[in-house]
Design a protein that fits this description.
alpha/beta, TIM Barrel, eight-stranded mixed β-sheet, 8 strands, globular
């Protein structure tokens, strides 16, 4: 089936995992991976979705929706992750179209676009929300190393329309089909204003999710030296009263910052973190 373009700025889709039993709690689903992110977390294991110089070719909109229509009766939901899905200006339209096809939708976000998140919540097209809590507020900026997202390219190279639907396990194949966009900000240019804006956005997104009446979870990937057990008291206070929180231990693999060394938490530290977070959140587990 041929689909006309639904979006003013085409969604940047880098891959599809055709079946997942773990990404969308209680739902047999497929996972769609968007390309581009407002953060540069050094430990992120998806550099090909985050770093412009490592971007892979895109999938066309027709490929995405043809694939989804072929999965009727086989899957019940779609998990949209990244990168950062809300980095895409037309993510709300994309979600609405998936919902109109009859699928439940789970959205993963880093919380950096509260206005877009608020619109999607108000549209009523999302069934589950998952937000990463990167660190305590005093360490947030140094953890996510935010870069300017406004100058990152959202253009699709004509050759990318020929991409094949593929499992994201193959996304580590590097392509130069699209022009890499830099959008880098030198360390000295980071102002107090931008850091304050980041914290405001994170707080606003947490509040939106917790008051949304939509099922949700918060989660943190933990690693040294970015995190210490003591950080989690403040993190618990950030999401005090939340429904669900998962601790995800860092695993060494490919990562955005190839020059930094990160280390996993010990089992003892993970249990200490769980105990701290259980004082603030209803359901806490180590994933």
């Amino acid at each position: 089936m041929i689909h006309n373009s639904l979006f003013i700025i085409p969604m940047q889709i880098a891959g599809i995992q055709k079946l997942t039993l773990v990404d969308f709690p209680g739902t047999v689903a497929a996972t769609i991976f968007t390309r581009g992110c407002s953060f540069r977390c050094g430990f992120c294991h998806n550099p090909e979705l985050v770093l412009p110089e490592k971007f892979n070719p895109l999938l066309s909109e027709s490929q995405i929706f043809d694939f989804l229509e072929s999965r009727y009766g086989k899957i019940n939901g779609i998990c949209i992750t990244g990168g950062e899905p809300l980095f895409q200006p037309d993510c709300d339209k994309f979600i609405s179209h998936i919902k109109a096809l009859g699928f439940k939708v789970k959205l993963d976000t880093n919380g950096s676009f509260p206005e877009r998140l608020e619109k999607i919540i108000k549209d009523g097209d999302v069934d589950y929300l998952a937000m990463d809590i990167k660190n305590s507020l005093v360490k947030y900026s140094q953890t996510v190393n935010p870069k300017s997202h406004s100058s990152l390219s959202l253009r699709v190279h004509p050759s990318e329309s020929k991409s094949e639907i593929r499992n994201p396990k193959k996304l580590d194949v590097i392509s130069s089909h699209s022009e890499p966009a830099t959008g880098r900000i030198e360390e000295g240019e980071k102002s107090q204003h931008s850091e304050n804006k980041l914290i405001k956005n994170i707080k606003q997104s947490i509040k939106l999710i917790m008051s949304s009446n939509i099922d949700y979870e918060f989660r943190t990937t933990v690693c040294h030296p970015l995190h210490e057990v003591a950080d989690f008291k403040e993190m618990g206070e950030m999401i005090n009263g939340a429904k669900r929180y998962f601790i995800q231990n860092y695993k060494q693999t490919k990562q955005v910052d190839e020059n930094s060394i990160y280390k996993s938490f010990s089992d003892k530290e993970l249990l200490e973190v769980k105990k701290i977070m259980a004082g603030f959140v209803g359901d806490v587990d180590i994933r």
